[in-house]
Structures are given as structure tokens and as C-alpha cells.
Amino acid sequence: MARVALPHLVLIILLSMEAPLAQPTASTKPLAAASDSTDFIEVSCRSTRYPPLCVQCLSSYARVIRQNEQALARVALSVTLSRARQAMAFVARMRDTRGIRPRENGAVRDCVANLGSSVDRLVQSIIEMDQMNKAAPGDDFEWHVSNLETWVSGALTNANTCLDGFAGRAMDGNIKTTVRSKVLDLAQVMSNTLALMDRFAARHRRSSHGRHP
């Protein structure tokens, strides 16, 4: 019985190996588009201070970003806002750390307040970005870009202010190390987003000048 069944088993294996080759067009095209989008993200991230972190944050959104500068900037803002909210919640939980000293507790509370301000500014930046989408090229665009840069820069400043509260050797310890690591990561993401906003604005200006010499 085993000798009779073997040819059938081989046939089944061969058919299963050939099956994925039956529709090359349907599977290859989306993969190629995703690859192009990923390349676009990697090239764009070279304009930031922390390219590997930039790619890490944005690569999973390649299908949404495609090769669109505006979509890239919008996604970067959304990711940054999400990271800021996570960082604020993370730092807030540090207040419940066993044995936390009064000065550490005060620094943590101030940090949470600063990160809350960062979140507010990033929300405003997304609102500004959405309003920009409806604006015609020209002075309105420049005004929106100026507001965007102000909001994101303010968010970055607040994150750095959070770290100022832990300055000095008297604050050294696990809480300072943990908070500093989390907030520095957020600050780097914010810095990258600001660079991508600058890149988007610059390329938009060049394309607008090209249309209206």
C-alpha cells in the first residue's frame, strides 16, 4: 500500500509548491509598491537627526504614506502624539514607585505637567495640518507652516523642560534614569518630526514655484 500511495504523495507536494506561482501579478505588485514606499521613508528620514529611529517609527505605515510628502508629515505628527501620550502615562506611573523621595516626586509631577503641554501642542499641530490641507498655496500655506513649526517646537521644549527637573547629582537614581530614557526617546521623535515638517514645507515651496514661475 505504501508503494502505491507514494506517487500520489509526491504529486500533492509538487502541486502545493507550484500553487503560489499561479498568480504572480496579484502578489508582486503590492509588494513592489510597499517596497517603493519604504524606500521613500528611508530617504526622507535621512534629513532627520535620528534616521534609524525615524524609519522605525514610520515604516509600518508605508502603505498609508506611499510616496506622499504631506502624508508622511501627517503620519509623523500622529505617531509623535501617540508617543507623547504614552510617555506621559508612563512617567505618571512613576509617582507610585515605592520609596520615591519628595524631590523626585515633585520632579515627576512637573514632568507630567510638561508632557501634558507637549500633548496639547501636538494636538494643535494636527489640527493645523488638517487646516493646511484645505488651504490654497500661497500666504495661507506659509502661515500654517509657521504655526506648525511653533506647535511642534513648543512640544519639544516642554519635553526638554521635563528633564531639567532631574538635573544635578542629588536627583540621581533609578527614577531619574528611567524617566530620562523615556523622555529622551520622545524628544528624539519630536526632533525628527520637526525635520520632516521642514522638509515637507521646503519641497512644497519648490513645487509651487515650479508651477508659478
Descriptors for this entry?
about 210 residues, mainly alpha, Butyryl-CoA Dehydrogenase, subunit A, domain 3, 8 helices, about 80% helix, about 0% strand, elongated, disordered N terminus
Description:
The protein is mainly alpha-helical and 213 residues long. It has a domain at 77-211: Invertase/pectin methylesterase inhibitor family protein (Butyryl-CoA Dehydrogenase, subunit A, domain 3, Up-down Bundle), CATH 1.20.140. Helices cover 81% and strands 0% of the residues. The chain contains 8 helices and no strands. It has helices at residues 2-18, 24-45, 51-58, 62-65, 69-93, 102-134, 139-164, 174-211. Helix 5 runs antiparallel to helix 8 (174-211), helix 6 (102-134) runs antiparallel to helix 7 (139-164) and helix 7 packs antiparallel against helix 8 (174-211). It starts with a helix and ends with a helix. 31% of the residues are buried. Residues 1-32 have low confidence and may be disordered.
The oligomerization state is: single chain
The tally of beta strands, per DSSP, is: 0
Silhouette? elongated
Spatial separation of the terminal alpha carbons: 82 Å
Structural class: mainly alpha
CATH class of the domain at 77-211: Mainly Alpha
Chain-averaged pLDDT: 83
**Count of alpha and pi helical runs:** 8
Strand content: under 5%
Main β sheet profile? none
Q: Helix-strand pattern, N to C?
A: HHHHHHHH
CATH architecture identity of the domain at 77-211: Up-down Bundle
- Proportion of residues in helical segments: over 70%
Radius of gyration: 25 Å
CATH topology of the domain at 77-211: Butyryl-CoA Dehydrogenase, subunit A, domain 3
Uncertain runs with pLDDT below 50, 5 residues or more?
Answer: 1-32
What's the name of the CATH homologous superfamily of the domain at 77-211?
Answer: Invertase/pectin methylesterase inhibitor family protein
